[in-house]
Write a structure and sequence with these properties.
By secondary structure, the chain is of the alpha+beta class. It folds into three domains: 1-98; 110-305 and 340-349, Spore Coat Polysaccharide Biosynthesis Protein SpsA, Chain A (Alpha-Beta Complex); 382-526, Galactose-binding domain-like (Jelly Rolls, Sandwich). Helices cover 36% and strands 20% of the residues. The protein contains 13 helices and 16 strands. The chain has helices spanning 2-74, 87-98, 107-110, 151-160, 164-168, 186-194, 196-201, 217-237, 257-267, 293-303, 309-321, 328-336, 396-400; strands at 134-142, 170-176, 241-246, 251-253, 275-277, 286-289, 339-341, 347-349, 382-386, 406-408, 416-434, 447-453, 473-477, 482-486, 494-501, 509-521. The strands form three sheets. Strands 9, 10, 11, 12, 13, 14, 15 and 16 form an eight-stranded antiparallel sheet that branches. It has a six-stranded mixed sheet with strand order 2-1-3-6-5-7. A two-stranded antiparallel ribbon has the order 4-8. A hairpin with an 8-residue loop joins β5 and β6. α1 packs across α2 (87-98) and α8 (217-237) runs antiparallel to α10. The longest helix has 73 residues, at 2-74. The N and C termini lie far apart (59 Å). The relative contact order is 0.08. Residues 382-513 form the MGAT4 A/B/C C-terminal domain.
């Protein structure tokens, strides 16, 4: 009997040691995997920067070639102009000068008046160090306001909140879009007077614009010039950094704003985004990737007289991802994958007196001082629905997009939250967190997480999970207000995920975090 017990204890000891070693190995493997993921994202970001710089060099080479063409054109009547070059160089220069490319549309098709002045696309006065290669470029357009200027306060707020290292990793560009010599400070006014020809050369005739959308002639002129100012800033900034952030001249920034924006952008380096929004107001705090600026500028030039800048940006997103055969809700879901909102806001609008003469604007960003009551994640496009009664506009749609938390009144048995994906997905893991800082007791309990596979044919793990009557498989449940876990790869791909309430709740329910982490998307052709 003693021998048997000893043997049994040894066996259990071996099992315990094996279990500990296995867990340690898994822990080390997970740490290595996380390290590899970080290295991969860092490498991807370096490749993005390298690609951007390659585009810059390509643009510079094209500029040099254009200068060669002009030089050849100017010396066509001189027989001795090229005698100092070798025969091979002369042949190359003549080929470059005489090449007949297709007539590709460019800025001069949309702004033909620029052809009348060679310096129309060069800053009349340029003060700065010409720095390039930074992570972030911030652009601020400014004009004289009749009542009060907020520019100094804006610059002080931005600069004072930068560390020494951050100052080396960013460029702040101030664009003075003035053409009248008496409308700014004496020093700037004198400069404007000296360079009046160059300053006015960029703008087309703004006196006979068509009045649209009920706007007055002065407002149409103001918004049209504003579009051109934004475009000039973007063209100037495109070669200076990886990201471009559009700001205004009447804002204040939150502490640590630079690191927050940079880290958020790097976290999304694997996502196909076009705009990151760090403020909900107008064109404040909008971040773009530098390679996208050329597309945006071209689009603005095509329609700069037609609509305000924020409308034009929305149209770009519509053109890129919206299907005319789908409804508006589907379009908004698709656009949300390109335009991602960060909360709480990092910039607050403080200007009471607009640059449009006589306009008072009491605009403030309500998210600027709010505590963070929810956490945003980039989730796959999906149609979301719930049987629960929503409280005060805290909808499930807003939560899924990372805009708000979901708040429902006392869930009952049988209630559900459903995410029906626009196309099949392979889910790696999920996380749902309930309650928040202001209402920590509004947690979800007695609720399961269920997924709906595309097909049950060949499912190897289906016996491991409880199957509902409508073919969903239970893969997790809420414990202490949180549901998180991994999805067995054999259950993928899936077309829907559902939270199902199994028991009446005595409290209200808040979903403050929803994360559905994917391995990859499927197309129906792959299935």
């Amino acid at each position: 009997m003693l021998a048997l017990m000893e043997h049994d204890l040894n066996y259990k000891l071996v099992l315990i040691i094996y279990d500990l070693l296995t867990k340690a190995h898994i822990s080390v493997s997970i740490e290595k995997l996380i390290a590899y993921q970080r290295e991969f994202h860092a490498l991807k970001e370096r490749l993005r920067v390298a690609e951007h710089r390659t585009l810059q060099r390509s643009s510079e080479l094209n500029t040099i070639l254009e200068q060669f063409r002009r030089a050849i054109a100017e010396t066509n009547n001189s027989k001795d102009a090229l005698i100092n070059f070798s025969d091979e160089t002369q042949k190359l220069l003549k080929e470059l000068a005489n090449r007949k490319p297709l007539q590709v549309p460019n800025i001069y098709h949309h702004l033909p008046h620029l052809l009348s002045n060679e310096g129309s696309l060069h800053p009349a006065v340029q003060v700065g160090l010409g720095r390039t290669g930074v992570t972030m470029v911030m652009g601020i357009p400014t004009v004289k306001r009749k009542v009060k200027s907020y520019l100094s306060e804006t610059l002080r707020s931005l600069i004072d909140k930068l560390s020494a290292e951050e100052k080396l990793d960013c460029v702040i560009i101030v664009y003075v879009g003035e053409v009248s010599p008496c409308s700014y400070s004496p020093s700037v006014g004198t400069t404007i007077k000296v360079f009046s020809t160059e300053l006015t050369a960029y703008y087309p005739d703004l006196t006979n614009l068509k009045e649209t959308f009920g706007d007055s002639k002065e407002r149409v002129r103001w918004r049209t010039k504003q579009n051109l100012d934004y475009s000039f800033l973007m063209m100037y900034a495109v070669s200076k950094g990886v990201y471009y952030v559009q700001l205004e001249d009447d804002i204040v920034a939150k502490p640590n704003y630079f690191a927050t924006m940079k880290n958020f952008a790097l976290q999304l380096s694997s996502e196909d985004w076009m705009i990151l929004e760090f403020s909900q107001l107008g064109f404040i705090g909008k971040m773009f990737q530098a390679p996208d600026l050329n597309l945006i500028v071209e689009f603005i030039f095509m329609f700069y007289k037609e609509k305000p800048i924020d409308w034009l940006l929305d149209h770009i997103l519509w053109v890129k991802v919206c299907n005319p055969e789908k409804d508006a809700k589907h379009c908004e879901r698709q656009k949300s994958s390109l335009r991602i909102r960060f909360r709480p806001s990092l910039f607050q609008h403080v200007g009471l007196h607009s640059s449009l003469a006589g306009k008072i604007q009491k605009l403030t960003d309500k998210d600027f001082l709010k505590p963070l009551l929810h956490k945003m994640h980039i989730n796959p496009p999906a149609e979301v629905s719930t049987s629960m009664k929503v409280y005060q506009g805290h909808t499930l749609e807003k939560t899924y997009l990372g805009e708000d938390f979901f708040w429902a009144i006392t869930p009952s048995v049988g209630d559900y939250v459903l995410f029906k994906f626009d196309r099949p997905v392979s889910i790696e893991r999920f996380l749902f967190r309930s309650g928040n800082q202001e209402h920590p007791g509004d947690k979800i309990e007695n609720t399961t997480v269920e997924i709906l596979p595309v097909s049950e044919a060949g499912l190897q793990a289906k016996d491991k999970y409880k199957r509902t009557e409508d073919r969903f498989y239970r893969v997790g449940q809420f414990e202490k207000g949180v549901a998180e876990g991994a999805v067995d790869p054999s259950l993928n791909p899936v077309v829907a995920l559902r939270l199902s309430v199994l028991k009446d709740s005595a409290v209200w329910a808040i979903l403050s975090e929803e994360a559905i982490i994917l391995r990859y998307y499927y197309s129906y052709d792959d299935l």
